[in-house]
Design brief:
single chain; mainly alpha; 3 helices; globular
Length: about 70
């Protein structure tokens, strides 16, 4: 969360896994989160919450460091 807007990362319970497995394409879990009926705990982590980093190259381009 940053500036009142939800973002990443998201920790989801096992009860949502089947719905998440059914997602196709570049679609996030926002709809699942909003309709699952489970409590949501928002934690403000600043602007990094709005980064969408799906590849190692994107992580590095955003200033991240990969180990391993």
């Amino acid at each position: 969360m940053s500036g009142g807007k939800r973002g990443n990362p998201v920790i989801l319970p096992r009860s949502t896994f089947e719905a998440i497995r059914q997602l196709q394409g570049d679609v996030g879990a926002r709809q699942i989160i909003e309709t699952c009926g489970l409590p949501v705990v928002d934690v403000d982590i600043g602007p990094a919450a709005h980064l969408d980093l799906d590849t190692p190259e994107a992580i590095i381009a955003a200033g991240g460091i990969l180990k391993g």
